[in-house]
């Protein structure tokens, strides 16, 4: 299983870190990674985060250290220090955990971090995101491979039922810790976990079927992202150290006049508080590094609208007032000539769509006709 995963995603690192809590899933991950990598002259490094939220957390971390030492696996305990929030502790702990794990990897030149999320975790994630109103990207669930805090994050067990992982440990005579928070109904994930067997019994909607549906959604997302990439290739012109533009023919290399193309400058420069577009009352404001756009008047000049801001060398051409203003992260550009982006993402960046006739509306990632 691990061999197929590593070959599929072309993971050839000499060392792979693994987040190991002391629970069954992460211990199974650690031992299986060690069995897979060691014969190849590669190694796994175990990282345990002590959140300090339970009296037994240190003992659990030391238990992982003991198991790792018995197998000559490098192990490090990372401690979440400082005050803990009274509310939102689950999310805060998750953020702190990944911050510590990824920080250690970056500091020590380890590019890949493995975590032990499994089939039930994926099914629980689906319902948690459904409850929160997630769209297509959210309902695809956790990705087997992603990037987090500058580190490649892999989840090789997403198609594996946790009972298989526990059976693996039983066969090797390894015991594991049980986190009492996994039984606490205060957490949404726990309530969803208890609901899944009822759903399977009453409607035959099993975790496996949910995972299959998530895979279908992921293929749909990938299709949309491919269409978005094709749109970028065909209609976006990139300017070295300046920005980019969007037009019908930008990707073709043909000459495009300012009347048909909106040239956009990178409007993010340290210390710049605002950028003001000077043309018939149209104002564009970029607050620090978070782009926020206010369009005071939909009418613009037929020519080029100049951008004036301290420390910013930029010129923006806007030819058609009916165009759609788009904010991609901190870069602003205009869709002139009625070109319609096919997806709500461009190279994994969130789009916010602004129409002159609907100046206060935004759209979340998704397809727009």
Summarize, please.
The chain is an alpha+beta fold and 369 residues long. Helices cover 34% and strands 20% of the residues.
Query: Structural class, from secondary structure content?
Result: alpha+beta
Strand content: 15-25%
Specify the number of helices. Answer: 9
Average pLDDT level: 73
C-alpha Rg, in Å?
A: 25 Å
Poorly predicted regions: 252-369
Structural account:
With 369 residues, this protein is of the alpha+beta class. It is built from 9 helices and 18 strands. The protein has helices spanning 2-8, 24-37, 57-70, 89-107, 119-131, 136-139, 162-171, 188-203, 207-235; strands spanning 15-19, 43-50, 74-79, 112-114, 145-148, 151-154, 236-239, 243-246, 262-265, 276-278, 286-287, 290-291, 304-308, 315-317, 324-328, 331-335, 345-346, 349-354. The strands form 5 sheets. The protein has a 6-stranded mixed β-sheet with strand order 3-2-1-4-6-5, sandwiched between helices. Strands 16-15-18-17 form a 4-stranded antiparallel β-sheet. The relative contact order is 0.09.
